[in-house]
Write a structure and sequence with these properties.
Layout (H helix, E strand, L loop, with lengths): L1 E8 L9 E8 L4 E6 L5 H9 L6 E6 L2 E2 L14 E4 L11 H6 L7 H14 L15 H14 L4 E5 L7 H18 L2 E6 L2 H7 L2 E6 L2 E6 L1 H6 L4 H6 L3 E5 H4 L15 E5 L3 E3 L7 E10 L4 E7 L2 E7 L9 E6 L5 E2 L3
Parallel strand pairs: 3-8, 3-9, 6-7, 7-8
Antiparallel strand pairs: 1-2, 1-4, 4-5, 9-10, 11-12, 12-18, 13-17, 14-15, 14-17, 15-16
Adenosine-5'-diphosphate (ADP) binds next to helix 1.
């Protein structure tokens, strides 16, 4: 449904392109996430897809048509693609209800009412239905903007950091419902977030961006368990990046041809405290941090430094503990 071919965009006055030679495609009904640090080009890419920016080179195809930038179109913006802005884009003199109604004003009254109520429920907005945007908090306005973007049943929905202004509890509640609702509407979504946990939990496909380029595209499971670079591994957290040389003693180095300087990723959750007889190594606890649901330990054995989680409250800094590593999960980087 959407195909992006080697798209590049440099803003005037900037030395580096905001987006450089990016290519990917999105299928019908797919939940596609763009994630990466701030400034990696995610929002620019969304604006290019919607046709709000002119690309320097490359092409974007939506439903078989070439997306035209604002310099080639009288009214900027591609129809059938809805962008929920970070700056909300609401009608200031209209109520929440009327804002959501705008996109579906051609439906029968009954159908409008049904759809609007559904959206007001999902976004916990029933009590604000008759309020105007200026009297609402940032988080409430953000929810109205999302409801408005979803109401017109777009073929492709572009969501730019849609939960950025919602507090943790509301965010957790709304996120799952929003994802279920979108799947039911069969709209494809490009979801921009810098929260790696949201990317992993909601997406069919994830593209990790850095400095205007896509570093890896894959399913959440692939991106997390088979990251192609240490950068991608660390982006999703919980990554011990160690050299083969530092694992020598453990006898878990991969094949003989691999250089001792090659790096592997061992996720924190794949290092565990072991029973005495089962230990692969004994390491000293250098740090112990409380994380609420568990503790995080930093352990050391010579040059090998690892982080792991534990529920054991009795272990303390300075203890020497038996450990095992889930060797099947140790991942050797391609690069
Ligand atoms: P992200 O959404 O990942 O935070 P952006 O697409 O907003 O990244 O920005 C990518 C790069 O382009 C950044 O270096 C940013 O400063 C620059 N940039 C974004 N918008 C503009 C603009 N309108 N004019 C000039 N530079 C811009």
């Amino acid at each position: 449904m959407l195909e992006i071919k080697k798209i590049t965009k440099k803003y005037e006055g900037q030395t580096k392109p905001a987006v450089s030679e990016v290519s990917f495609s999105v299928k019908d009904g797919e939940f596609f996430t763009l994630t990466g640090e701030s400034g990696s080009g995610k929002s620019t890419l969304l604006r290019l897809i919607k046709g709000l920016e002119d690309a320097d080179s490359g092409e974007i195809w939506f439903d078989g048509n070439l997306v035209k930038g604002p310099s080639k179109k009288l009214l900027a913006g591609e129809e059938g693609i809805e962008l929920a802005h970070q700056d909300y884009n609401l009608f200031p003199r209209h109520t929440v209800y009327e804002n959501i109604q705008y996109m579906i004003r051609s439906l029968t009254n009954e159908d409008q009412e049904k759809k609007i109520n559904e959206l007001l429920d999902i976004f916990r907005l029933q009590e604000y239905r008759d309020k105007i945007p200026g009297t609402l908090s940032g988080g409430q306005q953000q929810r109205v903007a999302l409801a408005k973007a979803l109401s017109g049943s777009p073929r492709l929905l572009l969501l730019d950091e849609p939960f950025s202004n919602l507090d943790m509890i509301l965010r957790a509640e709304i996120k799952a419902e929003l994802a279920d609702y979108i799947r039911q509407t069969k709209a494809a979504v490009i979801f921009v977030t810098h929260e790696s946990a949201d990317a992993l939990s909601l997406s069919d496909q994830i593209a990790v961006m850095k400095e205007g380029t896509v570093r890896q595209i894959g399913s959440p499971e692939t991106i997390y368990s088979k990251p192609i670079t240490p950068y991608v591994a660390s982006y999703f957290g919980n990554a011990n990046i160690v050299t083969i040389r530092n694992l020598e003693k453990l006898n878990i180095s991969a094949t003989k041809e691999v250089s001792p300087e090659a790096k592997v990723c061992i996720r924190y959750e794949d290092v565990e405290l072991a029973e005495e007889g089962n230990a692969m190594l004994y390491a000293k606890i250098m740090r112990k941090d409380y994380f609420g649901s568990c503790y995080r330990l930093e352990v050391r054995l010579d040059r090998l430094k690892l982080w792991l989680y534990t529920n054991s409250p009795i272990i303390k800094k300075g203890d020497i503990v038996p450990l095992k590593i889930n060797t099947e999960k140790v991942h050797l980087f391609d690069k």
